[in-house]
Amino acid sequence: MLNKLIIDPSSKKSIFLLRDTLSNEICPIIKSGRPIIVLCIGTDRSTGDSLGPLVGDKLKFLIRDKIYLYGNLENPVHAKNLSQVLDEIKTKHINPFIIAIDACLGSLQNVGKIIVEGKPLSPGSAMNKDLPKVGDLSITGIVNISGAMEFMVLQNTRLFTVMELAETISKGLYHSIIKTIGGRKSTSIIENKLAENIEA
């Protein structure tokens, strides 16, 4: 099981570190034939909580055999529909491996960093919401400082921080899938552009 890994998106090696870490985790899953669910949690109605939908939007083209994506800007997965989405996943997929992605609040020194852990995350914990834990593997982006007035903190989070986190998470996850199972026979323009960006 993956221990807690903290990644700084400002590092030039961040995308490659995330790619290799995730690839090591999902390789045996792919070989076992289990479907992989990328579950992006959050809402576009709050800057600080928009990390999940932004990642989902950037990964819309990632869907392929045995890889499924839930949550993006158009159809976000949030507190009000999370349980319903989880029920849908259980109904449609046999023994899925869920990679859960969400924003969270943390200590000052970790703001803007990514935490990858081989355990579920607790959505809505910053807002004291009682939601089911989700994920076999979790990727959280620390968007701001935890403490009092969490709702206001999330609303006043810098979009730059969220976008930087979303960019690194989406590219790292995309390239982990490509490294593990390969790309489609005909890559799309978007995929080519993303590949060009990471190689630049």
Automatic annotation (TrEMBL):
One GO MF term attached to the UniProt entry: peptidase activity
Statement: the UniProt record of this protein carries the keyword Protease: yes
InterPro entries: Pept_HybD-like_dom_sf (IPR023430), YyaC (IPR009665)
This protein's record includes keyword Hydrolase: yes
Biological-process GO terms, alphabetical: proteolysis
Family matches, as SUPFAM superfamilies: HybD-like
Signal peptide: none
Protein name: Spore protease YyaC
Gene, per the UniProt record: yyaC
